[in-house]
Structure formats: C-alpha cells, structure tokens
Amino acid sequence: MAAIGNLTRRDAARRLHVKTIIESCLDTSVGQMVLKLNNGETCGRIRLLGLVVDKRFKNNFQKNTELDYNSEEQPDGFYASITLDDSTGVINVRAWNNQAVLLNKYNLGDMVEIIGKPREYNGRVYILYECGFIVEDIHWWLLHELKILLDELSGSDDACNSSEYTSGNINKYIINKFIENELDTSQGQLGLCEKSLADKLIDVIHKLDRGDGVLFTTIREELKEFKTVEIEDVLKQLLKEGTLYECKPQRYRRSY
Question: Which residues contact 98 (CB under 8 A, 6 or more apart)?
C-alpha cells in the first residue's frame, strides 16, 4: 500500500492467468507479501477469472490445529475455499470468518472474477479472498483476456520513441481501442455492449482529473442520467476493488 497524506492507497489488483501465478514465487523483502513474477515485476493484489470446479466450507474451524495459513485473520470461525480453473491451470482461493461466508456463495460451475492477495502454504500459492462476483456476460471473459494481453505487450515493449501507430505498437493500439469499446468495424461484429456505469464513471474521472482528483458532485453532474444511489454503489465497488481511491475527502482518482 502507498500512503497519501493521512490516507492509505491500496495497490490496484493486477489481472493474471493462473499459470502465471503458480509459476511465480512469493517475496516478503519489500515489507509485505507480494507475488514476484518471472519478469521481475511484483504485485500484492491479484484479479483472476475462472470456473469454480471445487468448493469447501467448514464451521468451528478453530478445532483444527494442524494447519498454518499465514492469513491476515485468525481462522477461528468459518473457513471456505474454492478451486478456480481458467484453462491455464487451477488455483485455490481461501477465506476465513465473514469473508468465508461471502466466498461460500459461489457454486460449482459458476464463472467468477476474484480479487485477492497471494499467500502460500506448504510451498503452494493460493489466493486470500477479498471480493468478487459471478460473471454472466461472456464478453467479460474476453475483456479479461485482452487486458492481460495488453499488460504483456506493455511489458515487452522496448524503449523507443516510435508512435503507438507504428508497426511495433499497432497490436497494443488495437487492443486499447477494443477495451475502450471504440473499435469501429464495418460489420459491427466486434462491438461490445454499451458501456456500463462503472466504465463511464472511470472515464469521467480520467477526463476531468487534473492531479487532485474529481469531486463526487462533479461526477454526479456528469452522470446525471443515473440515480445518485446507483453512482454511489458503483463508486464503493470500484474503491473496494482498488480501481479508484479517495485522494481527498469526496475526491477520487484512478489507481493506475
């Protein structure tokens, strides 16, 4: 986490494939537990998408004294775990107490997007659950894959002064446009559905932020076609998942 004045900013969750996660290792040399990727980059929070292929839920888990979970919470109440398969590999997601109750809402066969922190037990990496939701639109999976690909392209770009329109960066440019839902095709076959409230809210902040964040009243005025309570609910979710942060009271910025 990064400190901003008297406030604390959470690191943005990075989208990764399961294969990338299980081939990486945990590193505590930076003062917190982070995942160290093979390219040398680190991330403390992970966003992954997969199919639930197994689940477990236990009550009165404090009676089991055989396990060491290096969890941020004491395993003294409920315990839940699900196994996610994203076609590149499988990984365990775990939670305790109140978070376990939330994790247990997912069922076998659900496609879910999860945000959590990397942890390790017996030499195997797992994800400590923070939040998530069931994915019902297949386009969300496509968006997830495109964002991962964009990250990979960004990481592989050599330092150069060329424009993003040059051949070396054309794929990155196309993916960016696709993600922004602005890619124009003659058949319209690649267009995604209309932008969600969350997308529009992020766009407003990106457009109006001059370095000190955007006031909630300004955001509400820009999104006046939506109800205030709808904007507040989406804003809370974006803050919770780390996409946005509150840099000053009632002022918001993107985390990346």
Answer: 78
